[in-house]
What we know:
Radius of gyration: 21 Å
Number of domains: 2
Shape: globular
Distance between the termini: 39 Å
Amino acid sequence: MPEGHTLHRLARGLTEAFAGREVRVTSPQGRFADSAAILDGGRVEGAEAWGKHLFVEFAEERFVHVHLGLYGQFAVHRDLSGAVDQVPPPVGQVRLRLVSRDGRAYADLRGATTCELVTTEQRDAVVARSGPDPLRPDASWEPSWARVRRSRAPIGGLLMDQTVLAGVGNVYRAELLFRHRMHPLRPGQSLRVGQFRVLWADLVELMAEGVRTGRIDTVRPEHTPEAMGRPPRVDDHGGEVYVYRRAGQPCHVCGATVRTEELLGRNLFWCARCQPRFRSRAVE
DNA sequence: TAGCTATGACTAA
DNA sequence: TAGTCCTAGCTAT
Length: 284
């Protein structure tokens, strides 16, 4: 399930599998059929991610813009022998299928909230609407900070606002705030610049690790299951976390109960003891 | 078979 | 803020 690290990892995988190759483009489900017909037989130049948006570039400045939404997936299969029978028939609702002409790779897109053929201008417009992406090497923390410092909105909401900062989802939000002992409802404008820079730097490191491993692991070495002698986390995304989806369970660090509350339709998770509610500086 | 849930984001009011 | 859309897997009936 997709936060920014998933999309960057995917962009890399698609580039390795298809860049410079001619591909068969189809839409077994039919909902991308017209665009697929336009792209079919064309050459893939590469793929790149900006936040949670993915762009697969074809020759002649044509892009497939993909947003996976809550449960989309883009499965890339590569290093195949090239035998035709290694590419199985599509299963389920496959919106987009790419098969390299040489038969060495294929990829199936399912469940995406967006899959559309766009021009360079349209691609640029999506990027322009997005905040800086911590996973892009040229990203700067300053535009994000300019938004956060002016806002009375809670930092928990600002971190997920893709126009403030691109690529953070619910897991990284919850975990980043825990790691910095920050209450999710703390107003953006109450942060100091130094605090935000530390948050940003940590996010860059955590998400880069996510790209490397394909999972979200946020616990520090001293809090791993091995270090603490506790059972490892068992659930659908595999990583070791402090608070995400652990409501009602004891905090790994202090033992207090992990809390949850809805903010803007999404679940917050935090430890009330490790992340005390912020009070204005006058009474701090 | 129906209902619910989920790491997201859009639109209308 | 509520409603809607995208899909698959799990649980309840």
